[in-house]
Amino acid sequence: MEDVFSIFNRYEAVRHRLPDAGFAEATTEIGSLLDIAGQVDAFVFDAFGVLNVGETAIPGAAERLDELRSAGHQIRILSNAASYNHESATDKFRKLGMRISGDEIVTSRDAALAGLDARLWGCIAAPSDTLGDIPASTCHLGNNPAVYDRVDGFLFLSTEAWRPEHQEVLRLSLLTRPRPLVIANADLVAPRDFGFSLEPGYYGHLLADECHGDIRFFGKPFPEVYEMIEASLPGVPEHRIAMCGDTLHTDILGAAARGWRTVLVTGDGLFAGVNTRSFCNRSALIPTWRLPRI
């Protein structure tokens, strides 16, 4: 999947596995989030394509977060990032120049780990990941099929070192002995400085296409991460929460399914350089508001 058209088409092809939601008939164009500040108590931000692209902060993002917080708005980051633990996720945003505390961040890794049971999990993870935050027995998966065959479940955290030959070993191991597969990042792709990277959700849906049994997806658009955000915002009505994201089938769909309002950010993420209206119309995923940058 090399461009927005193929990525969009793939999301549509797996739409039957995603939540359902209702949408308004039209989107309102705005110039910045300050235009809707009176209608929102809590702003929730996707990371990639909204606050940063790869390891580069999007100009003005840190300043906007500070403005909104200073005006009394709650700020949260909701990221389908499972390659590193919660502390590392917090440090990443601080290094990008964003004043963020650990309790303002929810990641798909957080949600996936909260649902793990006490079995031996074979982890598809970055080589540098110590797996120290996982509340169960773990081992790294590599090239050895025997290791895949002896674990009791699979936890897919990162594609950093994942290759087609590894995917085939996993597929064959699941065919031989079905076991749970937890996809800790439901994204198909992520925008990077060099283009798009394939993410765990891409590989998880390939296996789901073949009906490989117990596959569980965590992160946007699935509900657990939104529930965690809501739990951190006691007293804030759902319709006063706005999700700001760059992807229709993850950020916008998942938030709308919770009754949140939505902001499609178009300038730097999945839809950078293309007109989003046709994609919204084709998918019937209609954000509340739309703007280039926050």
Helix-strand blueprint:
Layout: H1 4-13, E1 28-29, E2 42-45, E3 52-53, E4 56-57, H2 61-70, E5 74-79, H3 86-95, E6 105-107, H4 108-114, E7 120-124, E8 137-140, H5 145-150, E9 153-156, H6 164-176, E10 181-183, E11 189-192, E12 195-198, H7 200-209, E13 215-217, H8 223-231, E14 241-245, H9 248-257, E15 261-265, H10 277-283, E16 289-291
Parallel strand pairs: 1-16, 2-5, 2-14, 5-6, 7-8, 7-9, 9-10, 10-13, 14-15, 15-16
Antiparallel strand pairs: 3-4, 11-12
Structure, described:
The chain has 294 residues and is an alpha/beta fold. The chain folds into 2 domains: 4-109 and 221-291, Rossmann fold; 111-217, Rossmann fold (3-Layer(aba) Sandwich), CATH 3.40.50.1000. It contains 10 helices and 16 strands. The protein has helices spanning 4-13, 61-70, 86-95, 108-114, 145-150, 164-176, 200-209, 223-231, 248-257, 277-283; strands at 28-29, 42-45, 52-53, 56-57, 74-79, 105-107, 120-124, 137-140, 153-156, 181-183, 189-192, 195-198, 215-217, 241-245, 261-265, 289-291. The strands form 4 sheets. It has a 7-stranded parallel sheet, with helices on both faces. Strands 8-7-9-10-13 form a 5-stranded parallel sheet, with helices on one face. Strand 5, helix 3 (86-95) and strand 6 (105-107) form a beta-alpha-beta unit. The protein starts with a helix and ends with a strand. The relative contact order is 0.20. The mean pLDDT is 95.
